[in-house]
Amino acid sequence: MTIELKLLTRRASVVLVLSLLVIIGLLIFTISYFRDASAWVVHPSNRHLYSNAQLMETGTIYDRKGEILFQTLNGSKIYNENKIIRTAVLHEIGDTNNNIVTGAQVAFREKLNGWNMFSGAYRFNQKFSHFKYDLHLTLDAQLCSTAYT
């Protein structure tokens, strides 16, 4: 009888240790999710948002007067049509390959994608869901182009 109780106690201890390991693992994952999820979602390997390491759809970046500085249409990046404005605001907006890490495309990519902690990047209904967010900067494109020239 005591051998059976010892065996039962040993099995219960193993199950308890395994249960604690699962709970600790879930706790570590949950903490990592809340801390790093915004970095995970904008990683270029995320096929929901990226194609060939380029964002498929993002919000539009405007200056303070509402002039479009950057937008994506059908997966292609479109900058302001004025070359002087494009050059003047290059470091504020960023480049096509996201090499300028201080540019708005990199610094605010979570916001431009429309990602948030509660719904993530998934959208239930594309027709009614605003899947991307626009960004309004405080800079003036015309003033930047005047300063550049």
List its traits:
149 residues; two-stranded antiparallel sheet; alpha+beta; 4-stranded mixed beta sheet; single chain; Penicillin-binding protein 2a (Domain 2)
Describe this structure in words.
It is a single chain. By secondary structure, this protein is of the alpha+beta class. It has a domain at 50-148: Penicillin-binding protein 2a (Domain 2), CATH 3.90.1310. Helices cover 45% and strands 12% of the residues. The chain is built from six helices and six strands. It has helices spanning 2-41, 83-88, 90-93, 104-107, 109-113, 141-148; strands at residues 50-51, 54-55, 61-62, 68-73, 76-79, 135-136. The strands form two sheets. A four-stranded mixed sheet has the order 5-4-3-6, with no helix packed on it. It has a two-stranded antiparallel sheet with strand order 1-2. Strand 3 (61-62) and strand 4 form a beta hairpin. The longest helix is centred in the N-terminal third of the chain and has 40 residues, at 2-41. It is rod-shaped, with a radius of gyration of 24 Å. It starts with a helix and ends with a helix. The relative contact order is 0.15. The mean pLDDT is 82.
Condensed summary:
By secondary structure, this protein is an alpha+beta fold. The protein has six helices and six strands; from the N terminus they run H-E-E-E-E-E-H-H-H-H-E-H.
Q: So what's the overall shape?
A: rod-shaped
DSSP summary, beta strand count:
6
Relative helix content = 40-55%
Radius of gyration: 24 Å
Q: Which H/E pattern describes the elements?
A: HEEEEEHHHHEH
Strand content: 5-15%
Distance between the termini: 94 Å
Can you identify the CATH class of the domain at 50-148?
A: Alpha Beta
Strands of the biggest beta sheet: in what spatial order?
Answer: 5-4-3-6
Report the CATH architecture of the domain at 50-148: Alpha-Beta Complex
Q: Sketch the major β-sheet.
A: 4 strands, mixed
Average the pLDDT over all residues and give the rounded result: 82
Tally of helical runs: 6
What is the structural class? alpha+beta
Any low-confidence stretches, pLDDT <50, length ≥5?
A: none
Query: Would you tell me which CATH topology of the domain at 50-148 applies?
Result: Penicillin-binding protein 2a (Domain 2)
